[in-house]
Amino acid sequence: MSRIRKDFSLQPESRRHFLRGAGVALALPWMESLPLLGSEDKPGPKRSAVRNQPPVRMATIFFSNGVEPAHWWAKGEGKKMELGPCLHALQGQAEDFTFIRGLFHKEAMRSTSPHLGRMPNVLSGAWVSLDPSDIRVGTSFDQVLSREIGSQTAVPSLVLGIEPNELRLEDGLSMIYGSCMSWATPTKPATKEIYPARAFDLLVGDGTGRRLDRSVLDAIRGDTQGLQPRISRSDRTKLDEYLESIRDIERRIEKANKEERIEGWRPTLAKPNMPRPADEIPQNVPDHMKLMLDLIVLGFQMDKTRIATLMLNNDLSQMNFKFVEGVKGALHLDLTHNGKAAAAEAMYLKTNQFHIAQFSYLIDRMKKIDEGGSSLLDNSMILLCSNLFDGDSHSAEQLPILLAGKAGGGLTPGRILDYFDKGDENRKACSLFLSMMDRMGVQLEKFGDASSRLTNL
Q1: Taking the domains of the chain in order of start, what are their residue ranges?
Q2: What share of the chain is helix, strand, coil (3-state, %, to 5)?
Q3: Residue 365: in which H helix or E strand, if any?
Q4: Which tens digit of pLDDT belongs to each residue from 96-144?
Q5: Residue pair 198/139 in contact by the 8 Å Cβ criterion
Q6: Angle at 57 between CA 55 and CA 62, to 5 degrees
């Protein structure tokens, strides 16, 4: 009987053996003649059973430098929900998302670095090393999911951005902290793709460059041949039977595909419904963002990935928002650190509204895609967040958070959840992450600074 893992560890799973080939890792059944590398009873994450219905997907959309607090609010619920000026683009979509107030990261609050101590840990709640010689954060929860369930899709997780990773220093610290919110390990950020064409190729292929029509068994043939002399006769029989069962599955999938059907749930899109983007990075920022959002939808609809993150801008962003009407020649960083000057605050609000419009676009696109009685949005969770609340004062006592979608029935949108006055133990953002991982089928006893789920979600 599977048990809930007590915490997330980066130590490799040692109780299973794998056959490996070009871009393929195939888990083997237990064999008595192979060395026992770990206890068969080792606790692992509890996962949901395979269901004959669409899988749950998760995307995180991030924008830097916080919001204008006076304009970030919501009142009421459902269709009657009133939204503050920041959320203007979401008018008419209030039933599709939950407004979450009061969640925070304790380590971010404690950090003496107002930006780089409160950015790389936005999806982990981890302590951030401020020693210039030791880049260290914590594994982000999207990468925990990627590690645990990413093997179910060609692309374990899609990590996207608009601005490149920066190599300069800020207050003596590496701007890699400000460029990455998705961390594969505490010391290594996940590779962020900013070229739409490369992201497209990743999704349209199999995520590794391996040919799609090549058998998994062909890919691991060499490793199989190397294993056979090391195992007993009975285990060789077991291995042959196991590999034949894989081959049989491949034959049935190939046959089903030719008949345009497949056992169980089938993605609603078999081939891309958008052209391959140009090789170069779009010079128009709104076009760039729209392309990346479309690629998330493509990846989800084709079931090439179920986990995605998109950074609309880096922390301390140098992005020029002159493309927004009414914003004149100002960098995002300057607009968000404005000393409460009236004219600059008005432009700050416009940048917030622009970011929310990207979130609204994604919600609208996913809501229109039918998956057999439910929409792609119904079967997803879309988290919108920033690393600060009030960018001008570097406030981190709470994070601006919206959560859209129904997670296949696991979430009830159209509400306001307020945790601000419920005490620090009951308003941890990592409790939200634990709850979201539950709905992806991965249950941990603890993540970051939280060991309990978010109430009323």
Answers
A1: 55-212+271-439
A2: 35, 15, 50
A3: helix 342-367
A4: 999 999 999 999 888 888 788 889 999 999 999 999 999 999 999 999 9
A5: no
A6: 175
Q: What is the pLDDT of residue 34?
A: 62
Which one-letter DSSP state was computed for residue 152? G
Tokens coding 71: 């304009």
Whose tokens are 């899109």? That residue is 269
CA 274 to chain centroid, in Å, comes to: 22
d(C-alpha 267, C-alpha 66), whole Å: 36
Q: Where are the beta strands (DSSP E) in 306-359?
A: 307-311
- DSSP calls for 232-257: -HHHHHHHHHHHHHHHHHHHHHHHHH
Beta strands 307-311; 57-62: pairing state: parallel
Q: How far apart are CA 167 and CA 350, in angstroms?
A: 29
Look at strands 24-27 and 18-21 and give their pairing.
Answer: antiparallel
**Which of 24-33, 297-306, 341-350 ranks highest by mean pLDDT?**
297-306
Give the type of residue at 443. Answer: Q
Residue 351 CB burial class (10 angstroms; 0-12, 13-18, ≥19): buried
Tokens of 263: 């056992």
Q: Tell how strand 18-21 and strand 380-385 pair up.
A: unpaired
**3-state secondary structure at position 225:** helix
Which residues, 6 or more positions from 152, have their beta carbon under 8 angstroms from its beta carbon?
Answer: 55, 306
Tell me the C-alpha distance between 308 and 306, whole Å. 7
Residue showing tokens 């990627």: 146
Token readout for 108 is 């971010």
As a dihedral over the C-alpha atoms of residue 282, residue 286, residue 287, residue 293, rounded to 10 degrees, the angle is: 110
Tell me if 385 sits within 8 A of 60, measured CB to CB.
yes
Rounded to whole angstroms, the Cα distance separating 70 from 67 reads: 9
CB count within 10 Å of CB 242 equals 16
Which CATH number is 55-212+271-439's, of 3.40.720, 2.40.50, 1.10.150, 1.20.1510?
3.40.720
List, in sequence order, every residue forming a beta bridge with 97; answer none if it has no partner: 404
Alpha helices for 259-341 (secondary structure H) = 285-301, 332-336
- Whether residue 337 contacts residue 391, with contact meaning beta carbons closer than 8 Å, is answered with yes
Backbone angles phi, psi at 275, to 5 degrees: -70, 160
Does residue 68 have a pLDDT over 90?
no
